[in-house]
Write a structure and sequence with these properties.
alpha/beta; Molybdenum Cofactor Biosythetic Enzyme, Chain A; six-stranded mixed sheet
Amino acid sequence: MTQSPAGSHRADAPASVRCFVLTISDTRLAADDTSGDAIATLLETAGHTVTGRKIVKDDARAIRDAVSYAAKSGANDAVITTGGTGISPRDVTADALAPLFDRTLDGFGELFRMLSYEDIGSAALLSRATAGVVGHTAVFALPGSESAVTLAMEKLIIPEIGHIVRELRR
């Protein structure tokens, strides 16, 4: 039986990728950053490297600067953010990242909301979780909820991150 193209791509994908974790919040501190902790723990448990972590305020310029630096530094294959993806006036992550993206990964947001709907029902439509590519770096913007972060990491990011990085390195 021949392997599907996605299967062969996954087989050639790096087993470990370098990831930067960015928490976006006006209220979180390192001591209570449970969503950032969950991302880092899930990445490390899956064999990936967390190259660094940072917390920035819900400010478009601060978000863009932090993601741009992490993506263009050459030290990271992926940047994973948590927070600021809702619809309140302070939730500016999706808007801040859109101009940075060279390409968007539309399927990420669509799949995340579908999976989230199974857990929280119609409230899933309030999520503006998104993903894209900055240069050769994958960027994922996740909600601030620890359960939403865990869902996205376990069902979408961890299973595909090596494959995504492989494609971006081609």
